[in-house]
Every structure is written in structure tokens, then in C-alpha cells.
Amino acid sequence: MADHYSVLGVDRDASFDEIKKAYRKLAREYHPDVNPDPEHQEKFKDITTAYEVLSDPDKRQRFDLGGDPFSQGGGFNGQNFGFGDIMDAFFGGGGSRGPRPRHRAGQDALLRIEVSLEEACFGTEREISVETAVLCEVCGGNGCAHGAKPTTCLVCKGRGEVQQVTRSFIGQVMTSRPCNNCQAYGTVIAQPCGECAGDGRVRAKRSIPVKIPAGVEHGNRIQMSGQGEVGPGGGPAGDLYVEILERPDELLVRDGNTLHASISIPFTSAALGGEVTIPTLDGDQKVSIKAGTQSGSTVTLKNLGVTHLRGGGRGDLIVHIDVTTPHKMKKDEEELLKKLAQLRGEKSETVTIHKRDEKEHGFFARFKDAFGR
User: CB within 8 A of 332, min separation 6: which ones?
Assistant: First the structure.
């Protein structure tokens, strides 16, 4: 067995870069295109074999241990190769990738639908119309006309790629590129389907029922498996995602599962108390107003909010109360108020300054922002 280290002129502890450098130097000198002499050709074969062994860690180890470096197959990773493959390893030439499949998975699709607050709270069902790629019924997805089949590409012989040999300063370099004749499929559809033009799919509108669960909110997406685009060549369809767009309600403001409503009551009702009726998602509901209610007070109606998306139960409806003060009064109304003020010992110049509770102030500020007031 030849001493591959001596053939390349490197030490036994030489690095891969040193081995590669030595090989490239000798390859330029002994390549058959440079020196056609038969003696040099044999020398070049020895140089190539030496590099093949010493550049592969497994083969080099078997050689160093006195074994046959090719006992488990030749070439890089146990595959046979020639000089062009070695040049590919040096200069980035593509290796065999094989033909790409015509049958490929389809893409996902996205559709947005608008729902009301009530539909988002209780859930609903919709029939939506979507235009996507569907399986061609004429050819069944194979892209061929009736009775025809794909044929092997005559250019690449079914490999999906072609090899090209170019000359460089060290000789011939072999590279690979996708076959333009078959678009790297390895086969050619000589008689394409007249309906889909060989793609195996066509675009069509279809109606799909969508179940919108109770508790969804703006921006949520519902995944519908297998309802997206059918893949090329009749490949499996992707998924359809339905994105929820929730319309703002005229009376109610949503904050998660909690709803907020704002009402205004006369100052007499706030002082005396009583009962008012307000519209909710569950129909008209009565709200009790305690005597002495102040502007900014709230009343919580349990379980009248939005349904929890995960788990049972519902949120609450919080009613925010604004006490209105009349800005125009009749004379007799003014007289009555003055008499009331005398009875209560109140004077117009009397004022009480106090600090608002920080927590209440923070909430009140957020409430004003929520209702744009």
C-alpha cells in the first residue's frame, strides 16, 4: 500500500488545510490536461487517491491504523466520486440533489371576518366564501391530459440537474445546476391538462362553514386544517386561518371578558335613588340606584359580560354612572332649589377641598379614556 503522506509530501500530523494545499499544488502540476504523459497520469491518480484518503477523517484513521481505507466504501461519506467532485469540494460546485417532486404541500391561507360584540360573546356560525387553489378534477392533480403520463426528461435523464464541465487553471471543473428543460423535476409533461395547464390545481371559489366559539376577541385566529391552498401536483392542502375583527359596539365597551356601560341620571335620581333600565347583551336589565349616588360611581352586574373563551362562566358588566346637573331651570325650579339649600344649610360660597383617592383617580382616568370622555 502506498504511503499517501509521502505521495502528497506532507507530515503524518498535517492538518486538513495543509493536505488540501499540497494536493492543489500537485494537481496543477500533474493534471492530464497539463501533462498528458502516461507517467504523469499515473502520478495524478496516486495524488488523487492520497487526497481522497487523507481528506476524509474516517479513511485517514483506518489508513493510520494499517487498515484498508476503502473497506467501508470509497469517496466522501462512503460515496464514489471523481476528480470533478473533488473540485466541487474546493470551489463550491453543487453535488447531486436529485429531482424535486411535483407533488408538494400547499400554502396556508388567511381570511378576515367581522363580527359583532354579541356574536363574539355568545359565538356563532358563518358561511364564508373563499377563493383558493383546489384540486383539478379533470386530471386528478397529476397535471397530464387524459391518458397521458409524465415522461423522463431527455436532457438530464431524470436527475433534475445537468452537469457542466469548465476549464480552470488546474484543469477541468465539474459543477451541477438545475435542468432548465424540466425545471428540475426530472420529468416533462408533454401533454398537459387543458384545465390546469399541468399544475394539478385550479383556482375556485367555495363556501366553508365556520364555527366561531364564544369568547373570541379582536385579532384571534381560528385554524381550519386542510382548508387552505392545495399544493402543486395535487399536493396536500395547507390550513385556512380565519382572523376575527370585532366591531365596536355603540353602547358597550369591552375589556377582556368585562363589559363597561356609561349612563347619565338626573341629580334628583342620584339624590333620591331609584331604578333604571339599560340595554345589555342579554336584553333590558334593571339597575338599582342608591340614594346619594355620586357622579363616577359604578354598579356591577354579575355574569353579564363576555363568555370566557376557555372554561365556563362569563365576565361582569360594570355600569358607570354620571350625574347630570341642569344648566337651565324655570323660575319655580330655582325657587325650590334655593329653599332646599336653606333647609340643608348650604351656601353657594361653601366649598370643601379634598384629595381624591389615588386608586379611584387612576381607575376614573382609565374609564374616561375608554369612553372618550
Answer: none
